[in-house]
């Protein structure tokens, strides 16, 4: 049976697994800047502390085991709320992505058999992916982010405490996570040496943050990773700094290096949405990497938000000019910057323009990918319908305008009438 989003559950049953199972807790490890261990980047439950104890041991922590048990037995678990919510609406979820990644690996049958033997525990030999957020240091203050992933936001929220009161789902409650957490400042690659030694089948190590390439000790992180010739190294980066030349030699030792460079908004709205950023710096670094690194693959990422569909031509130009495969994720509807909160008429107009722009792409493969992406965006964006701009979104934008001395009406005249 071919594995597709539509055949996903039947595919799992074909291999003797419940249709509710997820491969992420068995083959993925997400390690964040606070020391928390998670099943994946969308997970909600903090398990263990890799900066404090041994990640190799804590991977079978009781909370990890409970998540595996619940999913295997078809029970809802708050850890997996994002995927469960999407699937309940017939939308694509990242649970499918992990099934596909497991299936594409050389040890798929091994992972399946180990799950059947004991679905609550995991073998380190089944670990394929490790995502690491060593710190929250970042040079940007993007509108969909917060203190957990940006030190710039930490400073802004500290000086504007009303943000925590007005947007508690975005900024509140992070004092214990960031300000009072003794592990956020711990940036010690040796903490994971044992894990890498005991997990011989790791094929992907991905760094994100914060901004991972701002880390002056990043060379040490790359040094501890064994079997570099078998490892696909990855990054989520804003490409807004000049620290790459010293890393080019290190990157050449890995099987591949994939940089998911996020820009999320076109050139006009980029410095407004990705506050403190410069679109021209992004393009300069894209060109430098393209010219000097033969084993680096660029992925052009949109974290789809309220502004992503404006100036869609800019996204297509970058994907074409720098030979990048499109990649996307979504700002969830719990955040005021989610695309779902655009007024219906404007949303419809922007989606139609995106489809029109995609249809003009000459490269057949790229055209197919972009049209599929826009279709996913449409499915996600049309969950919520309203004639006016969401009041919470409007208030959030105006409040940031006041703090930053910016003006949404000048930056994006298309939204002016809704203010």
What key phrases describe this protein's structure?
419 residues, alpha/beta, nine-stranded mixed β-sheet, two-stranded antiparallel ribbon, 20 helices, 11 strands, 41% helix, globular
Q: Helical amount among residues, as a percent range?
A: 40-55%
Helical region count?
Answer: 20
Roughly what is the average pLDDT, rounded to an integer?
93
Instruction: Briefly note the structural class of the backbone.
Output: alpha/beta
- Order of strands, main sheet, comes to 3-2-1-4-6-7-8-10-11
Radius of gyration: 21 Å
Low-confidence residue ranges: none
Give the termini separation.
51 Å
Largest beta-sheet characterization: 9 strands, mixed
Overall form: globular
Task: Please provide the count of β strands.
Answer: 11
Q: Strand percentage, roughly? A: 5-15%
Structure overview:
The chain is built from 20 helices and 11 strands. The protein has a 9-stranded mixed β-sheet. Strands 5-9 form a two-stranded antiparallel ribbon. Helix 17 (344-359) runs antiparallel to helix 18 (364-381). Strand 10, helix 16 (312-321) and strand 11 (325-330) form a beta-alpha-beta unit. Helices cover 41% and strands 12% of the residues. The radius of gyration is 21 Å and the shape is globular. It is an alpha/beta fold and 419 residues long. The mean pLDDT is 93.
